[in-house]
Design goal:
The structure is a single chain. This protein is of the alpha/beta class and 407 residues long. It folds into three domains: 71 residues, Orthogonal Bundle (Arc Repressor Mutant, subunit A), CATH 1.10.10; 127 residues, ATPase, nucleotide binding domain (Nucleotidyltransferase, domain 5, 2-Layer Sandwich); 158 residues, Nucleotidyltransferase, domain 5, CATH 3.30.420.40. It has 13 helices and 15 strands. The strands form four sheets. Strands 6-5-4-7-10 form a five-stranded mixed β-sheet, sandwiched between helices. It is globular and about 75 Å long. The two termini are 23 Å apart.
Length: 407
């Protein structure tokens, strides 16, 4: 995310300070709404005149609205501010089998959503996405749409945002961003699904005060998003976190990436289905949801397959537990429905990788079904709210990056 570049000798302008202050106030309003201007000045350390100028600008731009009047023992009653919930974001979660398009407001509350099958022809899929997006826009004429966020089961080029690595999607190199922008006239932001889940945790979840965490998405494959020292790690080619394609057994099953024995061939939903089928049970075509239902009904073969999957999930996590030592590991996946059984298996495997001290907290995401979509809401919003960790200013209590600057 945002860092100071000491090799750049350009002096920060008043506009830079104003942008920082704007992001500080927007984040404070988002997290503490409803909040008065006086409280914004007190918490941020900014001058009251600066707060007034910026908040009036935010009201004119329809990011913020005046709310109820507060009550004081004496003196003028303050007007509380809150985010304008008529500001909305279009989001899409692109998965190998199913794609979801939804509308959410600036607080991450979902207003509507619809699903569609994912097809292996990227241009035709882009047309379907555009049709769904236009339908959502037409269905909500009262909303002010800010942009489009899309999570993808793979990696995009940092500069062009073309999809460059998505083995489970089985698409060729394709510029999905450009196709949707040209058809809708709206800006599109794209992000890896695991990274989107990191944003969901940091912006809307229980991990707001975490300095270091790893999010693991378990579905058709395995994805990993890494948040270190309040920053989302991206790496040289934006490929940080592809632990799912680290080979654990060179003689293991073939992976969709072309390798053999990768972590995801042992720990994904598809792996659990393979374990169940290897038991010799013949009940026709079985989906992962069916396997979970069998597990919830305490079918012994289903539970054995899911247990084996959980052991593999935990063993794979040892790579970044030993190498990164995160404070938390958050898991996004349908299998967390059986967390009371599978969670302790994963926690025990993770604990074996800890060299010193306590093991990291391992827990499921609060709402695994919506984590990717909610993360793409943050992906679009961070252009206005700032790409730094939302709690930087509150967890330290001392950072006042631009408190002396004018608005």
């Amino acid at each position: 995310m945002r860092r100071i570049n000491f090799t750049n000798t350009e002096v920060a302008s008043s506009g830079t300070a104003r942008d920082i202050n704007r992001g500080v106030l927007l984040n404070l309003i988002r997290r503490r709404q409803p909040i008065s201007r006086a409280d914004l000045a007190r918490i941020s350390g900014l001058q009251r005149s600066t707060v007034s100028l910026i908040t009036e600008q935010l009201i004119q731009e329809k990011w913020v609205v005046n709310g109820a009047l507060g009550r004081l023992p004496r003196g003028r009653r303050p007007t509380f501010l809150r985010l304008n919930d008529r500001r909305a974001i279009l989001v899409a979660d692109l998965r190998p089998n199913q794609t979801t398009v939804a509308v959410a407001d600036v607080n991450g509350k979902f207003i509507s959503q619809e699903g569609m099958p994912t097809i292996d022809h990227p241009a035709k899929m882009a047309s379907r996405l555009v049709a769904s997006i236009k339908h959502q826009i037409a269905s909500h004429p009262e909303l002010l749409f800010e942009g489009i966020g899309i999570s993808v089961p793979g990696r995009t080029d940092d500069k062009t945002q073309r999809i460059v690595f998505a083995p489970n999607l089985k698409w060729p190199d394709y510029n999905l961003k450009e196709a949707i922008e040209e058809a809708t006239g709206m800006a599109v932001e794209m992000e890896n699904a695991a990274n989107a889940c990191v944003l969901a945790e940091v912006w809307f979840g229980r991990s707001e005060v975490s300095r270091d965490l790893v999010v693991v998405t378990v579905s058709e494959g395995i994805g990993t998003g890494i948040f270190l020292n309040h920053h989302l790690a991206r790496g040289f080619n934006g490929m940080t976190g592809e632990f799912g394609h680290v080979p654990l057994d060179p003689h293991g099953p073939e992976c969709s990436c072309g390798g053999r024995g990768c972590w995801e061939v042992f720990a994904s939903n598809r792996a659990a289905l393979r374990y169940y089928n290897e038991s010799g049970t013949d009940i026709g075509t079985l989906e992962f949801q069916d396997l979970l239902m069998l597990g919830e009904a305490e079918d012994p073969l289903a539970l054995r397959a899911l247990d084996k999957m959980a052991h593999a999930v935990g063993r794979g996590m040892r790579m970044f537990v030993a190498g990164l030592a995160p404070e938390q590991i958050v898991i996004v996946g349908e299998f967390t429905r059986l967390w009371s059984r599978l969670g302790p298996i994963i926690e025990a495997e993770v604990a074996r990788a800890v060299l010193v001290g306590k093991p990291p907290i391992v827990r499921p995401a609060e709402d695994p079904r919506m984590a990717r979509l909610r993360g793409t809401v943050a992906l679009v919003l961070q252009k206005h709210f700032g790409a730094f960790a939302p709690t930087d200013f509150e967890t330290s209590g001392k950072r006042r990056l631009a408190s002396g600057a004018s608005a």
